[in-house]
Structure formats: C-alpha cells, structure tokens
C-alpha cells in the first residue's frame, strides 16, 4: 500500500533532540540564510516515517558467538517454520535453547535469503514481539565462512549485531549457514525511494545523520579491525525509522586487509 500524504505536509524535526542523540553538530553555516523550522516533540521526529508503508523490494543484495545449532520441525529456515537452536555449553556456560518463528522473507539475492523471525517464549511457544533477521546462505563444507568469521569480531553501534548462528541441512545433503542478526526494519535505499515517490527531497538533517553514522562504521571496520566491506550501497545500510540509527550490514563480500596481499575492490 502506498503512503497517503498531502503535498503540503511539512517535515517537522526537532534539531536539538536529534543532534543530542547522535552527538553530531549539524548546525547551519552562518553564511546561509536562516531556515524557519516548526517546533516538534521527540515523538514527532520520525512522524512521516511512522506512517510509511513501503513495498519490500527484492534486491541483489573478539567475542565468539556459539555454534552447534539444532534444527527441528524441518531441514532449514522456511516461512512459517519453528526454529529451535541450542547455544552455550562451552567454557562452563550453561546451554540455552532458543526458539524462533520464521515469519516472512525480507530479502533475497545471489547470497541466499533473509527471513524476519520472532522470538518465541520457550515455555508457551508464543511470540514475544522481539524480532530478529536470519540470513540463510549455502555453505561449502570444504571452507570456513568468511562472513561469519568477520561478523564474530564486530561490535559497534553502527554495525548490525550477530546474535548467534547455526547450521542446517536439506534432503539433498546441502549445508546452510544461518546467521541470526538483529532486525532493523528499513534501508537507506527504501527511505530515499519513499521521498522520491513523494517528490520530496530527503531532509538535510537525515542526510547528515546517516552520513555521519556510515563514516563511523567504516572507520571502525577499517581502522580497528582492518576489514574492507567491498559492497557499500543503500540496500546494505539499515535504518531504524523511529530513532534514525544506521547500521551497516551484509559482510558477504568483506575481506581482511593485508598489506602484502592485493585485494580487488
């Protein structure tokens, strides 16, 4: 369903609240003419985006997380399936069983599929409302997965978090790696497309906030971890429409930078 908005609808933004939250100085240059901005509360900051209904576009898109997931009620992550995995049990940690319900497909591409899933209360197997994204990719049994190895090292507010992972098999004896990630509902691509359909420019403050956070994420993976993402595009930049926090995702093409080894960018 397309969003219904009046052409006269203005984008109300509380500069102070947004800038304090992101610790980012987005004040206008003194040489520019002052811009009159209506007062708004924090709840009104993403007002238009609360009402957004965006089609899901199919696009070709040093804390070790525990392994050894167990799959039940099927051989792989599929829509409508209950996924039960067991984590922990290492270094004296107790084992923990976690259940998810695969709700719908939110992304597809040459890499595989991404499902939106909901955490189930273990005792009652009812949805708690907590959502995760499970990225399912075909795994070559001969090699380790480079994306998994890199994501196990990532810990930054502007990089999508890997919660845990598990493996599943099919009747054809195909091995799949399932990455359980935090769920962020939108992407910069879909946000920009929304404003384009409405014949609006994306608000400058959003451009500044998103750019700042993207630079923070890239600085972290480059300088702290020595990793090059190699697939930066709007579809791989997630956005929380309520807080406007940005998170870099999809490290399927990422690679460790080695000074003596040539890397094709």
UniProtKB/TrEMBL annotation:
One GO term (biological process): cell differentiation
A Pfam family annotated for this UniProt entry: Pkinase
Record domain Protein kinase: where: 100-265
Keyword Transferase listed: yes
Organism, as annotated: Musa troglodytarum
GO cellular-component term (any): nucleus
Record keywords: ATP-binding, Kinase, Nucleotide-binding, Serine/threonine-protein kinase, Transferase
PANTHER family named among the record's database cross-references: GLYCOGEN SYNTHASE KINASE-3 ALPHA, SHAGGY-RELATED PROTEIN KINASE THETA
Binding site for ATP: 136
UniProt GO MF annotations: ATP binding; protein serine/threonine kinase activity
Sequence similarity: Belongs to the protein kinase superfamily. CMGC Ser/Thr protein kinase family. GSK-3 subfamily.
PROSITE patterns: PROTEIN_KINASE_ATP (PS00107), PROTEIN_KINASE_DOM (PS50011), PROTEIN_KINASE_ST (PS00108)
Protein name, per record: Shaggy-related protein kinase
Alphabetical list of InterPro entries matching this protein: GSK-3 (IPR050591), Kinase-like_dom_sf (IPR011009), Prot_kinase_dom (IPR000719), Protein_kinase_ATP_BS (IPR017441), Ser/Thr_kinase_AS (IPR008271)
